[in-house]
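User: Continuing from earlier, I have the next pair ready.

Assistant: Great, send them over.

User: Here they are, in order.

Assistant: Folding the first of the pair now:
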Amino acid sequence: MKIVIDNKIPYIRGAFEGVAKVVYLPGSKTTPEVVKDADAIVTRTRTICNEKLLAGSSVKFIATATIGYDHIDTEYCDAAGIKWTNAPGCNSKSVEQYIASTLMVLAERKNLQLKELCIGIVGVGNVGSKVARVSDLLGMKVLLNDPPRERAEGSAAFVSLKQIMDQADIITLHVPLKMKGEDATFHLGSGEFFSGLVRKPILINSCRGEVVDTLAVKEALKNNQISGFVCDCWENEPDIDLELLAMTEIATPHIAGYSKDGKATGTQMSVHAISQFFGLGLENWRPSEVEQPENPVFELDGTGLSNEEIISKAILSTYDIRNDDQTFRKNPAQFEQLRGDYPTRREFPVFTIVLKNMPEGTLDILKKLGFNI
């Protein structure tokens, strides 16, 4: 059998050795000619899997090593008998770390006490659930909005979007991109949305660029309808709006889920899915040689520090979002290169903290965040 693999997918080389012929190509080079005799494709979001690519091919299975799958024409694939899978939750811990770092930087810059703030989480799937857990650990009031889950599970744990618009000091978006239907999220951040906000919140978008209307968010910033915008996902990537970039509080090039752990998990899920579909016997395969952080063990002295200051130091020691922000602002035209050459970032459980003079309650929070103590 033949498998075509996007050559930017990490840790996958050698996974199918001995069981398949493998062709590694950049997503931009994945053409109808290349996939014509392929049995499977392993892809990222940059490869558009639609009729133009797949018609007349022998492709039976598509695995995307990403949470999002709007680059796959699922209706066409279903009609053509092509099975497909994504990697739900693969980078959810990475986005959790991204949001945690964001919250700490915002608190420092704006002299905020997170425990006094209300955060509204729109979309409470794999990612949103973890963001909610971290926000709760930080002492924030947490409001959850997820209409599909609310319909399935009841309204006890959820609130309306209007309630978040009325009460939240920070709103963070973790929804999939849906262009139409009851739960459409395209331009959820519209002019109407911004004009209905009550507390001038900070808005964070780390899900899909098209969820927020670029023109509307620029107007909201100019009109002081929001007090800041943190953006990881942009409309028209990689050709982003440079005026919006200049107006953001924190800006990054779509790397919220780019921890090495998240990438390794997405690759593993794709390999397992293809193995199971074709009976290749690779269900126990794991990525190897995942890069280690520069300082996996660090000391933290809590003397004279508040609970929030200690936690902030711990989180920012593993990932300081300001570094990505500064690099991106200097090189916005290198959007794709910054993603492709993204430096090693590992998640909380990889790190061990040697603690000194630490309050018991803070120690418990650090453990719940996933740190080794």
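And the other member of the pair:
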Amino acid sequence: MVGSRNKLSNKRVEATLADFLVQHALIGQSLTIAYSGGLDSTVLLYALKRLASLLDLRLAALHVHHGLSQNADEWSGHCARICTQLGIDLSVINVIVKPKLGEGIEASARKVRLDAVLTQSAGWVCMAHHADDQAETVLHNLLRGSGFRGAGGIPAIRGRVLRPFLTLRKEILLEYATEHQLKWVEDESNEDCYFTRNYLRHEVVPLLKVRFPKAVEQLSVAARRFSDAQILLDDLALLDLKKDHFSFPVQTSVLRNLAEVRARNLMRSLLSGNNVQLPDERRLNEFVRQVRTASNDRHPSIQTPTYRLWVVSGELHFEKKA
């Protein structure tokens, strides 16, 4: 029974990967695998290698050495050995993680890794996030008070980044790795429940699954629906803005002429469209209220560690900080 289940997971992993690549017209493309050396990215690396000749893929791998663990050197060495065995070129990028004000080490490390991967690679980048990651992300964002954008979780495609495993449970990846006798490393920080995502992974999600066995799958389905809703809200914002992209400056009369709820939606889409984090809901809503009601001699503004918004001469301006 276990053997047949492993064979089924073998087919499911590679079929899901192949279907994703075909669906998005990626046959014959160059793909860079974000390879941490952990279970998930190891399965992605190995499965793509098995599909490479069939789909005419040109593969490379990139490992980000962040130095946060005393085992970081060992992990990069492991990645180099595996890539040599598979005949895949590997680049190792050294980075320094320095959290910004109000930012945790976990979130900062994710951003630094992603920036390094995108900066040091060309073409498409494949990452191994799976359905369990999606469920944890949705829960985390909802508990932080996120709207549809956050509840939409991890996108399958954003820019050059591909995440073909989002419909697969982690247990399927583990069965695949076991069937093929793959070797991977374990990041000890993944067990530390001080970090919110680890707490959700080890304490909250297992408890939910006792009462709701399909909790992970259902949260992933909900994420897709939230994401669809956010697309519609962004489309509405563009109609209200009367532009085909989210750019500044914006006439304050645009916000004044909208119903308040649509003005707030437009402001959220404007900021997200410029790839910055929204201020908290209370602060954002108050700023929109001020923009809509301020007399000509008032100049509402918002300052954050990464950008500023301000009104002058009837126009709303935006600037990212260096």
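Worth noting for the second one:
The two ends are 58 Å apart (CA to CA). The chain has a mean pLDDT of 91.
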